[in-house]
Amino acid sequence: MEKEENILGTEKIGKLIKKFSIPCIISLLVNSLYNIVDQIFIGQGVGYLGNGATNVVFPLAMICLAFSLMLGDGASSYLSLKLGENKKEEAAKGVGNGILLSAVVAILLCVVSLTFLPQLLNLFGCTDNLREYATQYGKIISMGLPFMMIGMALNSIIRADGSPRYAMTTMVLGAILNTILDPIFIFIFKMGVEGAAIATIFSQFVTFVLNVWYIRKFKSITLNKETFQFKFKVAKKVSALGISSFITQMSFVVVMAFENNLLGKYGAQSKFGSDIPITVLGIVMKISQILNSIIIGIAAGTQPIFGYNYGARRFDRVKTALKTVLGLSVVISTIAFLLFQTIPDKLISIFGSGDENYMEFACLAFRTYLLLCICNGIQIPSGIFFQAIGKSIKSAILSLSRQILFLIPALVILGSSFGIMGVLSAGPVADGLAFVVATVLLWFELKHLKQGNSKSQTLKDEPHTGNPLEKQVIITVSREYGSGGRYIGKLIADTLGIKFYDKEFIEQIAKETGLAEDYIENQEQKRNSLAGLNNGYYSGLNNADELFIKESELIKKVAEKESCVIIGRCADFILQDRKNVIKVFVYSNMEDKVKRATEIYGLNQTKAEKEIKRIDKLRSNHYKYYTEKDWHNLSNYDICINSDTLGVDKSAGLICQMINDKIVTQL
Asked: Looking at 216, 241, 266, which one is the last position of a domain?
């Protein structure tokens, strides 16, 4: 691990991007091609109405994919977090519950989709001409949903277990098999859209079998019958960890439902009719997804390069990596733009032919809807960049802005004003607005980047002398901001003659990772309400999760070797299995906290209360996220004290007396 982190800070940026991005691009392209292959062969063998039918069914598959990614990515994150805490049994329970939930949800969705398929097709904008094909295709796809969903969930978990090549291989094999079987079922067996659906679910079944087979040879954990017993708390945590993937996928479902219904409505009022617009724009979006997959793959592969060098204050390398990613992305999106504008008829002909109106609308759709696709070369990498450097709010805004904030309103407003051309024009409007937001956020961020290097320090191992404690004891101190809890913790350590740990952890993590101390300090123990969206582009742990794992390891390490006082960082939870831990919580009323914050921390008095509430909220979110407990629940602690009742000095003295009494009577 040490070697790889050093490479991130020393190896040439271009070489690093090539190493990390190519696997991401391959995985994302395989997913995109899975959806496109069916349409190519259906278009050639059935006609454009067959393609229109698959476009109407596609949102159903996306809903199922959203659930499988939520549970798969959630279980993989749970696995990584619990392994970081060295809790293999809990990690196994998380994986078991993730697999169990994916199976249950898959079966439920299978039953629901088969039972209510006609209603779902209406919801997704199905027309009368498309209904027969859509029903045939949708029934078979629905029957195969359990294989798809469980296989996809397992794919994410297998990657987290340290076998990304295996996970990628099973996906690639499925895609290749689908490509081989499609023409066999469609052209040789003359099965039309039903043949394409059978080819798809058979390919997904093969991936499912290969991934299920992997369960027996997990590297990091052992799964047994007990791990598959349903645990509500574990299931809830797994789902919460994967919610960003769910929201990202569901945003596409919402957009597709809006587009199909509006295309059908306004297409019927034009010479093109309802079927052609639904068919063509579905194809256009899937072709553009190939472009986006390449851009996302480049940027997602660069995430560790961004994060490491930003944290290490090597801002020259951050700028170089960002310029390289943006440059590559803009070049690729420019090439795509030229293709979309110059040969749209050639691109659409890959998916079969149609009448004069079909070809005319296809050219209009490519040239209008994707007019500003070049902007994707800036907007998409910007979102991933902010994700990598821990700016979760900015990342979430950019993740959702194009689809939800801009595209849907534009579809409704422009469609009602200009009909079918208004719907097509919503694409470049959304792309342009998202580009402006991304550019502004990037510009302000780059203004603050200054080249510098962090200091590397270590936890000092010199033991304190004169330790009056007869037994080893760990005191964890949780505290409200401005309550004087940190100072009380320092007084306790000095009085008892034991070590005091707070920023020492930051220094040690900085040494081990190369991240800057101020970056670590700004990322740790703080979790805002939008942090759950910080993994939206590509699954994996975010910066706060990585820091929590590192800090957990350090906290356990120091607790093993000596008595000490540890400030914050969920130490009371991390060390909950140890009997020699005394948990302290320090609080105070707002008036005294404001006074202390202005006098000691130098905060502006008019803004002090707001800042205190903000920081306490972030600490509470952090504690809740990693412990599933309420930070202010006094039953979590052994000693709770209002620091203003006696003052900080006497509060520290009283706590020391209580600690000594407990050591004598209990420890």
From this structure: 241
